[in-house]
Amino acid sequence: MGKTAMWVARDRELLGIIAVADGVRETSRQAIAEMTSLGLSVYMLTGDNHKTAQAIAQSVGIAAERVFAEVLPEQKAEMVKKLQREGNVVGMVGDGINDAPALATAEIGFAIGSGTDVAIETADIALLRGDLLSVVTAIRLSKATIKKIRQNLFWAFGYNSLGVPLAALGFISPVIAGAAMALSSVSVVSNSLLLRRFRSTV
């Protein structure tokens, strides 16, 4: 994996070179694969040098052409804007002060729970776990929630579109109409409570 080299000197005499690198979590490659399976295009924006960035991207499965290295905080935000101008809905994941502008610019910002206070305050969602799989879980839970909302709207609209005309025309009594309305509310609430069964598959 690419490393960042630091020169160590004393009195203008080179003593040695120290190579450092951020460790990649074992779950990162799986998380990127899961995001791709959800139809997402994954980009990497980092302040690291190009060699290090490409090495990390390769290890987790991010395409080389979607890696942008040595970018400043404002450049990250500008990259988010560029993707938005191209018609994309952008989600940004970050954990540091340098990520805050991009987190604020994106439609949805995810702050890793182990990140800085600035990133957590700026983001829309603060994730408790410090790995990318928690982002996948959040996206899947969001999709499940939207699905439930659509189901609830369908059932509520169905009850009302059927019950109101029948009651207005006198085909059903007000008591039955009231009971049907109550049943509509109960079915919507019960369907929403099914979200408690949601379990992450990653």
From TrEMBL:
EC number(s) per entry: 7.2.2.8
Membrane spanning stretches: 153-172, 178-195
Gene3D superfamilies, sorted: HAD superfamily/HAD-like
Catalytic activity: Cu(+)(in) + ATP + H2O = Cu(+)(out) + ADP + phosphate + H(+)
GO molecular function (one): P-type divalent copper transporter activity
Class in the EC hierarchy, top level: translocase
GO (cellular component) term, any one: membrane
GO biological processes: copper ion homeostasis
Keywords assigned: Copper, Copper transport, Ion transport, Membrane, Translocase, Transmembrane, Transmembrane helix, Transport
One Pfam family here: Hydrolase
Superkingdom assignment: Bacteria
PANTHER family: ATP7, ISOFORM B (PTHR43520), P-TYPE CU(+) TRANSPORTER (PTHR43520:SF8)
Protein name stated in the entry: P-type Cu(+) transporter
Natural source organism: Ferroacidibacillus organovorans
